[in-house]
Every structure is written in structure tokens, then in C-alpha cells.
Amino acid sequence: MDICGFRHHIMVEDASDGTFRVTIESDCPNVQMYDEMLGYVESEELTRLNDTRVIRLADAAGLTPTCLVPMAVLNACWVEAGLMSKNLACKSEPLRIIFHRGS
């Protein structure tokens, strides 16, 4: 996240019980709290945003609506679940949001 200046590393492992273990390394104190609170993602959460632990705990940890970490967690889970190609994900360019000044 270039805007906030913090760096995050998200690791996901399929626990083979319908959940995905999530570990987030970050220098952001709010994301560190989110990591401690989250711990896992249930497979049912991968196909919706409404009323999921991923989103509720992001709010409880003090992440702002503009923080990309919860969506990055879901994307990493999608790759681990085989719902998104790992080869294509690894080949893709880094995702960026570019803000342009109005004239």
C-alpha cells in the first residue's frame, strides 16, 4: 500500500478441513491486530462479501474501508483454493490504484 506506507505479506495454507490458515506479516499495528483476530478463513466466505468474518474483523481491527489487506486475503485464499490460477497470479503485474489530479 503506497498511500499508507506500510508493507504486508499474506500467506495462506489450505487446512483441508474447509478452512484456510492465514498469516499476515505487516508493520501496520492495525493489520497486526487483524492477523491475530483472523487466523483462518472459511471456504464459504470466498464467494461473498456480505457478513463475512474477513470483513467484520477488518472493521473490528480498525482497518479503513480503503485498506486493501482484506481483499488481498480473499485473493490469496482464492489462489490456494484453486479458484484462481496460481501461475497466472504469479505472472501478473503488481496491482495498483493510480490517482490522477483533477485539472
Verbal overview:
A three-stranded antiparallel β-sheet has the order 1-2-3. The chain has helices at 29-38, 53-60, 69-81, 86-91; strands at residues 8-14, 19-26, 40-42. It has one domain (8-91). The mean pLDDT is 91. It is globular, with a radius of gyration of 14 Å. The chain is built from four helices and three strands. It has 103 residues and is of the alpha+beta class. Helix 1 crosses helix 2.
For the structure shown, list the relevant keywords.
3 strands, alpha+beta, 4 helices, 103 residues
Q: If you compute it from the alpha carbons, what radius of gyration comes out, rounded to the nearest whole angstrom? A: 14 Å
Distance between the termini: 25 Å
**Spans of 5+ residues with little confidence (pLDDT < 50)?**
none
Strand count: 3
- As a percent range, the share of strand residues is 15-25%
What order do the helices and strands follow?
EEHEHHH
Question: If you average the pLDDT, what whole number results?
Answer: 91
Helix content: 25-40%
How many helices does DSSP assign? 4
What is the strand arrangement across the widest sheet?
1-2-3
Largest sheet: 3 strands, antiparallel
Tell me the domain tally. 1
Overall shape: globular
Structural class: alpha+beta
